[in-house]
Design goal:
The protein is α+β, with helices and mostly antiparallel strands. It folds into 4 domains: about 30 residues; about 90 residues, conserved putative lor/sdh protein from methanococcus maripaludis s2 fold; about 90 residues, Elongation Factor Tu (Ef-tu), domain 3, CATH 2.40.30; about 120 residues, Beta Barrel (OB fold (Dihydrolipoamide Acetyltransferase, E2P)), CATH 2.40.50. About 25% of the residues lie in helices and about 40% in strands. It contains 3 helices and 23 strands. Strands 1, 2, 17, 18, 19, 20, 21, 22 and 23 form a 9-stranded mixed beta sheet that branches. α2 runs antiparallel to α3. The two termini are about 75 Å apart. About 20% of the residues are buried.
């Protein structure tokens, strides 16, 4: 029992000591949130940025990729032994130029046979026609002779088509890639002989956020640069994809670019600048924006306190962001101490960034 009394007295002494120490700490700090100006509800010194309309270049920055104007894998329509390969890897070829030739001796022999049969059938048809004119034969006999002529003509056309299929020709002018087969190999329609690429003009694909879908149209001008180069080049929008990517919420844009010197090659990475025109709008430093699940917000000074304000943003540069809705000209925006700021936090203006 004595030990229980001792334990009880110790606990009471600790509680009384804590109360006295806590009261002394409040007196030194000026109470909860007071004294130092850093507690809850205290005035925090901050920099502010005055909202005002400025000249806004309205430029969209995007990443793009060069693609060939035309590109095709050259393949044979039929199977056979390759007897001729008329390409030099990496060289330019003209439209219609012979690329590859398959063995065609059997087709030529059948064509020769049909030629003789056609000559004989034509002679028979001519004789039958004279006999029909004097009613020496029936119309049915003449029709059989005429049908023979027409049938042989159709067979000849079929063989000529088969003969044309033993040749692979360039469907357009362009540059041949690396070959995948050699003379003497057995070629089938599934085997790619080589790739033919046309790069003048060349195309460039890039994507923009869906909210700019009505700002970029066919004929719009864009500028772009290559990775590792400070040079700028120009292109023209040739088409805009009519469908928005529902996963990324972006819109694909395709440009055409003159490439006579073949400086640009398919697959190249490019940095694209799309100028949407110059306007007067409210611009704020990008570091003043706070993203959250519902969008973006900003702290505005009202009545000496930081007040949360939801905003809708437009185009942005590396330092500034356009505000479309949520701010008025003259609003004071908190520009420092954002991460530790709370709604309703008392503040004290330390410096105006853009007086």
């Amino acid at each position: 029992m004595r030990s229980l009394w001792i334990v009880g007295l110790v606990i009471i002494a600790m509680v009384i000591g804590k109360l006295f120490l806590f009261s002394d700490k409040q007196e030194k700090t000026g109470g909860p949130g007071g004294g130092t100006g850093q507690g809850k509800g205290g005035a925090i010194p901050v920099d502010i940025y005055l909202a005002k309309k400025q000249e806004n270049a309205n430029v969209i920055y995007a990443s793009g990729t060069m693609i060939a104007n035309e590109e095709v894998e050259l393949k044979s329509e039929t199977s056979g032994r390759l007897i001729k390969l008329n390409i030099s890897e990496g060289n330019f070829v003209q439209k219609g130029q012979l690329i590859a030739k398959l063995h065609d001796a059997d087709i030529l022999a059948r064509l020769k046979k049909i030629k003789y049969e056609e000559e004989l059938a034509a002679q028979v048809e001519a004789r039958q026609k004279k006999l029909l004119d004097i009613n020496a034969i029936s119309k049915e006999e003449y029709d059989l002779a005429l049908n023979k002529v027409n049938t042989l003509s159709a067979d000849k056309e079929a063989l000529q088509v088969a003969l044309a299929q033993t040749e692979v020709r360039a469907p357009f002018s362009g540059r041949i890639g690396l070959k995948n087969i050699s003379v003497g190999a057995y070629l089938t329609p599934s085997i790619t002989i080589a790739t033919l690429v046309q790069t003048n003009p060349i195309k460039m694909d890039f994507t923009i956020p869906e909210k700019y879908n009505d700002r970029v149209k066919k004929g719009s001008k864009v500028s772009f640069g290559l990775d590792g180069s400070s040079d700028k080049f120009a292109g023209t929008v040739m088409a805009v994809d009519p469908k928005i990517d529902e996963n990324l919420r972006t819109l694909k844009v395709r440009c055409t670019i003159t490439n006579s010197g073949e400086k640009f090659k398919p697959g190249m990475f490019v940095k694209v600048d799309v100028n949407l025109g110059s306007t007067q709008s409210i611009l704020v430093p990008s570091e003043t924006l706070i993203p959250f699940i519902g969008g973006k917000k900003i702290y505005v000074v009202r009545g000496g306190k930081a007040t949360e304000q939801n905003v809708i943003t437009g185009v942005r540069s590396d330092k500034m962001v356009e505000i479309l809705e949520g701010l008025q000209v003259g609003d004071s925006i908190v520009a420092s101490g954002i991460m530790s700021m709370k709604n309703g936090q008392g503040i004290k203006i330390k410096k105006v960034i853009n007086p």
